[in-house]
Amino acid sequence: MSVVPFASHDAVDPDAGDQSDSIALAPSEAFVSSAAVQDITERAMAYLEAGYALHLSGPPGTGKTTLAFHVAAQLGRPAILIHGDHEFGSSDLIGRESGYRKSRLVDNYIPSVFKLEEEGRALWIDNRITTACRLGHSIIYDEFNRSKPEANNPFLSILSEGVLNIPGLHGRGEGYVKVHPCFRAIFTSNPAEYAGVYRAQDALLDRMITLELGHYDRETEIAITASKSGVDPQRAARVVDVVRACRVEGKDPHFPTLRATIAIARVLATRGGEASYRNPVFLWACRDILSHTTPNGKSDQAVSPDFIDLILRRSEGAEEGGKATMRSGGRAAARAKGGK
């Protein structure tokens, strides 16, 4: 079992059984919590504690996977991580026959009688979903709709009847696995119109509770940017304001994402300097990073360098205007005080 540093109250003690695919979620101070994050966490925990599967849906860069780990850590159980893949079949999730076991018994107890018995049996290897169902682990299925819909069919009986159907074991009388009462499933997905994504079957979506995620509020984005990049909150706020302005005034309200904000801030943390239009490092970082963060690689929705320069100048002008107003107000207050 590998250990992933992440936000939780206590480290997890693994159950008996095969732990090779499991991770224990250990505490970390790197996770950024705010009122908005805490609200989503509490709602997610309420649904999971009631026994439902959780589905975090939203565009890229909204923190779905990070939040999934955070919520799974609160459950206090080992977790198994799966990334959606278009090449997945059901056997990649539940298991398959792998190898062959042959036994041979020779009985020559009576010298005049020779008895020979041979038996062959295919070996069954559990895969990650079966392991989680047997041991009561949590499943984090990241971007599950990148897998073909038919590959996810095993979840239908898991989430409704609490039973995992394994056709390959029916001949042995082991075709059904009762799902452990502590088993929980957390899914994340991108919108269906994104490249490389399949539309999930309605029957599966009906068996889970979906939370639609969008971009966080300004204060949360500033805190996350400062934590992930190492810059001070003032520079983080400047970068966040520029990226949020690109979202508001650009062609797509979901792009650029928080990932672009963190990338720009990390460049500032590495090379130094202010988040200012007069800083060439900040200027070319914004042009390079923001002009290529487009949905589905659509060039007609790309953010042009001229547009980015306009946003930077306008943002800096507003900031300078605010400072000038404060200075003017301070001088007026001083004159009024002197007049008295």
TrEMBL record:
Gene3D superfamilies: P-loop containing nucleotide triphosphate hydrolases
Pfam families assigned: AAA_5
Annotated protein name in UniProt: Gas vesicle protein GvpN
Claim: Cytoplasm is one of the keywords in the record: yes
GO biological process: gas vesicle organization
Similarity remark: Belongs to the CbbQ/NirQ/NorQ/GpvN family.
Positions in coiled-coil regions: none
Single GO MF annotation: ATP hydrolysis activity
Subcellular location: Cytoplasm; Gas vesicle
Phylogenetic lineage: Bacteria, Pseudomonadati, Pseudomonadota, Alphaproteobacteria, Hyphomicrobiales
Source taxon at top rank: Bacteria
Location of the AAA+ ATPase domain: 50-219
Keywords: ATP-binding, Cytoplasm, Gas vesicle, Hydrolase, Nucleotide-binding, Plasmid
Taxonomic source organism: Methylocella tundrae
Catalytic activity line of the entry: ATP + H2O = ADP + phosphate + H(+)
Bias-annotated ranges (Low complexity): 329-340
